[in-house]
Amino acid sequence: MQARSAARPRPASNFELYSWFFMRVSAIALFVLAVFHLVYMHIVIGLDAITFEVIAQRWQSPGWRLYDMFLLVFGWLHGTNGMRVVIDDYVRPQGLRVLIKSVLYVLVFVIIVLGAYVIFTFES
Amino acid sequence: MATISNLWNAVSYRGREGQIAWMLHRASGVGVFLFLTFHILDIFLMSFGPEVFDTLLFFYHQFVFKLLIVFGLYLGVLYHALNGIRVVIIDFWPGMAQHQARLWRVQMVIFALAYVPSAIYMLLTMFGH
After folding, report:
1. Which residues in chain A touch residue B92, judged by CB atoms under 8 angstroms apart?
2. pLDDT tens column, B25-42
3. Span B50-75, pLDDT tens digits
């Protein structure tokens, strides 16, 4: 009988460990950031009351810009990593899997750049 | 065919709370991800000025879209957030894994208490007048 630790293959990299840890840490951050964002926009302000003016007013404050930036980055990294796991689970042919994940990463890069651009450069 | 039989396996597999929690977590996660793609594109329109942004807001004021917000996005985010905290507790708090099913039931009570009144409030402000 081999010892259990010797029988278990050592992973080639620690990527999945960091990924697992990041998901938990960002989950705690997003629990506060995303739930508050939804409640604030949809219960305090209300969907029909959201206009250009309201958001422009909000971005007068650097604090809100920072809040939105955190939400953007944490939300997208958490969501992308989740999608990566889902794709790995369901898309079996390797070529297709690589293709779909490549599209995902390009999409996410573009989205984060667009979001960061509007948050930082917006002037009313 | 493979997809249909996989789907049937998923539904008929009697994994109870843990499996249901996992399936809902996955479905809500993918759903929120898809919404966020549109959400960043619409907020990017802020850089084109009030005319463009406010004109395109009509999309968000559609009846169907409002229903999707309350019964899709808000429901999905709230479930995913609460279940995510349960996963964090199970992973970081030694011994909690064996209570995962009871934790899920507690979580669903919290979910109902938070979701039902706030969803009714949202619907009333959306359609009440």
Report:
1. 24
2. 999 999 999 999 999 999
3. 999 999 888 888 999 999 999 999 99
User: Distance from B50 to chain A by nearest Cα, in Å?
Assistant: 5
What domains can be seen in chain A, in order of their start residue? 17-121 (1.20.1300.10)
Question: With an 8 Å Cβ cutoff, are B47 and A121 in contact?
Answer: yes
**Region B15-127: CATH code:** 1.20.1300.10
Average pLDDT, chain A: 93
Residues of chain B contacting residue A52, judged by C-beta atoms under 8 Å apart: 46, 49-50, 53-54
pLDDT at A5: 60
pTM of the model: 0.90
Nearest to A79 by CA among B15, B31, B127, B64: B31
Contact criterion met (CB < 8 Å) for B77 and A72: no
pLDDT digits (tens, 9 = 90+) for B101-115: 999 999 999 999 999
B72 DSSP 8-state letter: I
Residue of A nearest to B121 (CA): A43
Q: Quick check: A110 and B41 in contact, CB under 8 A? A: no
Interface ipTM: 0.89
> What confidence tens digit (pLDDT) does each residue in B75-90 have?
999 999 999 999 999 9
